[in-house]
Task: inverse folding
């Protein structure tokens, strides 16, 4: 025990010590839980770079093409390694390690403890519910904390370079979350900037402020260059068309279609009835004849965004209460924020800069969450990203009075973190996920069967679980997996890769061209088939019938034939 204690005291300020802690958390959580993707976006993005559509493509839509070039190159070397999932986990691991490194090198021992507790909660999300939006948040927090820490120490050049690298990686991983997290994390610099202005006649403080401006300018120049490079990659006619189409897709998926009940007359004038609306509202919207971009524009006009009124604000608060305090995945983060705020109020050293920083963090967190609610409702991955940024930034600007904090309070917070973590994660322990594993195996058997039948294209509704639920960062997606499988919508619809696949089987319209196409099958539940069949009969051929080809796992495979 003495040797262990000596080792910790001699090494806890080194980066590899923080990295070792996160490697331990990674091993622990992977022993206790199954690693999964937190949203379908990640496997869709992996499909582009891993050759699932036949080509190792660099376009990842929501992630910069520079990362697309890097990952597609790795997949060209070998497709037997799930590079995308490993890359996301490594980015998260090094981000959290950099954050711990910063706090372990600061003076207050209780801040170190709280940072470790926050790292514990965040590591679970990072290593078992992998999602690129959250990864972007961790990267941004790490980058800003490293740069802020560099101005507290003499280790400027090396630390600042790594901080800028983390910021660039965050920007490349997801621009939207980078901007949201950045707006919160700049609070780290408020005490420093106020100090520089207070002592602006002091040459050293003036130089320090100029150094910060220089770092900011370099960061802006770098992310601007990366944005320009990414925009160049989407100038071809196919990707330009997709970008325009995806604006409507994002509108209808994230903000939802305008209510059919409120705009029934307008929908009927466009030839869209309630049953059509039910398909489009569930993301099965890729009908270029009935629901083309001209129609999409008309649909968008009545209600382009939620109405920001008092009722919507009240709903935001009510749903936010449930999301923050009652929803298990976020309860740990909410508890940590409440604990830190109480410590800040009752045990911190009073300073104007500290209070201004805390107030700023609260205001920007509120703005981020409210904007996210207006765009997406309360999404776990966005809420957790914002709360993680709040926790680490608030910790950075908090100066606790160590002589006023007792060991009892420390033990209480430790026990509370463990109890709440067990409460929040209980349903996801491996022993409680047997049904998920069974479904995972069944769905992958179906995918294997589809993969072997290259003579036919298999179309499905977008929400079919095949690609929506049962995937992990380690299972990987084989090359050519999407050569003969496609869906009736989602944000990958109308990418040049998607179009190429369906065109190979004589399909231009994913609905209409299913009729009398010997090369195309429809896979799904019976209810899925009934809704699509009724749609085909309404819009294209009233004599269309569904013929059962066979069953595969829990799904039925049909062809649509005109009688």
Result:
């Amino acid at each position: 025990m003495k040797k262990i204690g000596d080792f910790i005291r001699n090494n806890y300020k080194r980066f590899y010590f923080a990295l070792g802690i996160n490697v331990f958390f990674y091993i622990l959580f992977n022993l206790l839980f199954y690693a999964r993707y937190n949203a379908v976006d990640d496997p869709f993005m992996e499909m582009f770079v891993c050759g699932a559509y036949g080509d190792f493509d660099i376009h990842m839509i929501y992630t910069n093409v520079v990362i697309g070039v890097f990952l597609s190159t790795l997949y060209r070397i070998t497709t037997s390694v799930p590079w995308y999932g490993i890359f996301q986990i490594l980015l998260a691991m090094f981000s959290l390690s950099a954050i711990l490194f910063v706090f372990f090198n600061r003076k207050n021992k209780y801040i170190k403890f709280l940072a470790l507790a926050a790292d514990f909660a965040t590591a679970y999300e990072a290593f078992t519910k992998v999602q690129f939006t959250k990864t972007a948040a961790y990267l941004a927090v790490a980058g800003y904390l490293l740069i802020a820490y560099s101005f507290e120490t003499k280790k400027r050049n090396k630390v600042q370079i790594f901080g800028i690298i983390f910021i660039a990686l965050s920007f490349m991983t997801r621009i939207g979350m980078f901007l949201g997290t950045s707006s919160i994390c700049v609070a780290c610099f408020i005490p420093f900037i106020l100090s520089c202005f207070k002592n602006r006649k002091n040459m050293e403080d003036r130089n320090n402020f100029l150094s910060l401006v220089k770092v900011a300018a370099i960061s802006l120049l770098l992310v601007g260059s990366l944005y320009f490079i990414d925009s160049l990659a989407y100038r071809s006619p196919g990707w330009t068309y997709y970008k325009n189409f995806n604006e409507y897709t994002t509108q209808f998926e994230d903000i939802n279609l305008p209510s059919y009940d409120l705009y029934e007359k307008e929908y009927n004038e466009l030839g869209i009835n309630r049953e059509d609306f039910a398909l489009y509202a569930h993301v099965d919207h890729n009908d270029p004849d009935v629901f083309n971009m001209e129609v999409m524009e008309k649909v968008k006009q009545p209600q382009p965004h939620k109405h920001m009124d008092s009722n919507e604000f009240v709903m935001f608060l009510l749903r936010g209460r449930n999301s923050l305090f009652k929803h298990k995945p976020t309860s740990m983060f909410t508890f940590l924020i409440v604990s830190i705020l109480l410590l800040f109020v009752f045990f911190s050293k009073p300073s104007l800069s500290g209070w201004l920083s805390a107030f700023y963090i609260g205001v920007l967190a509120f703005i981020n969450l409210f904007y996210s609610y207006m765009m997406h409702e309360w999404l776990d991955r966005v809420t957790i990203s914002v709360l993680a940024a709040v926790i680490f930034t608030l910790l950075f600007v908090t100066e606790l009075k160590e002589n006023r904090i007792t060991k009892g309070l420390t033990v209480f917070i430790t026990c509370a973190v463990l109890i709440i973590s067990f409460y929040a994660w209980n349903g996801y322990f491996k022993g409680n996920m047997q049904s998920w594993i069974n479904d995972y195996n069944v769905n992958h058997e179906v995918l294997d069967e589809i993969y072997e039948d290259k003579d036919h294209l298999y179309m499905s509704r977008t929400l079919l679980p095949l690609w929506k639920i049962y995937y992990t960062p380690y299972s990987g997606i084989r090359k050519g997996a999407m050569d003969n499988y496609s869906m009736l919508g989602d944000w990958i619809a109308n990418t040049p890769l998607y179009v190429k696949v369906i065109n190979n089987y004589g399909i231009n319209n994913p609905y209409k061209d299913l009729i009398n196409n010997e090369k195309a099958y429809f896979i799904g539940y019976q209810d899925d088939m009934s809704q699509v069949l009724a749609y085909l009969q309404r819009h294209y051929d009233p004599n269309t019938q569904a013929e059962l080809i066979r069953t595969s796992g829990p799904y039925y495979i049909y062809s649509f034939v005109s009688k």
